[in-house]
What does this fold into?
Amino acid sequence: MENSWLPRMTQKKAEFIVKTRERLKEMSSLLETLTHRPADAEIIKQLASHYHQLAGGGGIFELDELCMYAQFGETIVFSLVRQGGSAAPDSIEKLKEAVMSMNGALQVADREMQGTQTETGPLPAVPALITAVVGPLAKRLRIFVVSSDDAHSGALENLLVESDLEFRVFHSSKEALEALKLSLPDGVLVDIPLSDGDGYELVTKLRQMPGGNKPPIVMLSREQGFLDKVGAIRAGVDAFFEHPLDFPAVVEKLRYLLDRDKPERFRILSVEDDPDQAEFIRSTLEYAGYNVLTLNDPKAFEEALLAFCPDLLLLDVMMGDITGFEIAKYVRQMERFAALPILFLTTQNQLEAHIESARSGGDDHLIKPIAPPLLVATVAGRLERYRVFQKMLKREGLTQCLTHSAFIERAGALVEPFQRRFSLVLMLIDVDGLRHVNERYGFPAGDKVILTVSNLLKKTFRHSELIGRIGGDSFGVMVENLSIPEVAELGQAFLRELSAVEHVGGGSPFYVTASSGVAALGDGMDLKVLITDAEQALQSAKAQGRNRLVRAAGKALR
It folds into this structure.
């Protein structure tokens, strides 16, 4: 993995020197023409692009002297671009001197390259500072397979190997528990029944261990009708499969559960017209774990923005006819990307450039050449703030449940026929008399009640990630792969546990209850109809005396 950072760097440096030598010849020719046509704006523009790209590109390969002379020429030619008119003879001479000095810097670099292996020699190691910024390289995830059936464990082992997952096999609950006491795995597959029990006790004990609430657990039933889904959920199982077992689907579900809590692999769109700079940015950020799309032609930006939907923009400033400042202003006019982090990466360090960066909506102004650790650290910091901001838009502050809009959006996706894989049941919950609690005991006491409700829901329906606070005192849970009776049984357990919790307000204890309505998605139904059915069931529960659960078009369950 170490050799994957900036692959073939030595060879790339040699290629860069060859291309730069040709570029300097072209620049010398342009400067000779400019001597005779000092007001030719097109020549001045071409020279500006050459000096700009060399000022940044040389820094990638630590050609510091080349960078220094390129930046000197860039300052002069950009001044000509801003002022317009003719180039003065002394300015042209200084630009020629910069080209001569860059040629000299290349000769020094050529001598230093002599004897350096390119094709077969060792590649440079990953800088320690990069590792310090991005953290240790990802390790293979470790899975415990608990099964008394050699055929089943064998089938699972082959699929886990194909998924690049490390695993250990245990043939009994006793063996697995001894291993769990030493260290916790990243995930667990439990094949039941086991030779020394039904497997539920193993799951319960794992969940009671320090940190045991984190690993996803998938339970499998070898015998038709043996698996009690409700009992599995109460024990702390995240997913369950019944006979006949589809082992590829089992491992696919495990992978989904393992990835569910993983930090998102952020998407970065880099707009950079210099191929060497583009490769440097892509290699550096991809090593740090980001998904990077590099765009050389800014004219294709709009299409790339809408298709790639980046989490961060990295823009060069000078890119021919279009500047990075203009792209940033365009992005800031789109409501969808109003909060998108935008970083400028440029050789321009003048005060005016920094001011223009801020005016155009940029979040940071980075100067080329930039050290890889600084680039990674800046990107990581901006993305972390963006992640928190996005989470605030989708998660309710007190409970960290989905907001109403986020819940409806994700529930709608599940209801779509092409997305649906399992049965769907919607459960709506409304706290009874929360307004009275707020009036008598104060809003802090009411907030504690809401927090208790959300925590109990997360505990009861830990296998479902779709739990939302859809109103001040109401919640919604979308449950997959369970029938209405099974969801109703879990819902009743939740109501009983909630009613037994003692709350304290103003020094006085009090208790609260909740009412619930449950509805299943039927053929031809959409989300709107499903919500209406669940709401009618909830209203029926309220009308029948509260503290009860009612199924859609059914009777109350207490």
Remarks:
- Residues 145 and 169 are 5 Å apart (CA to CA).
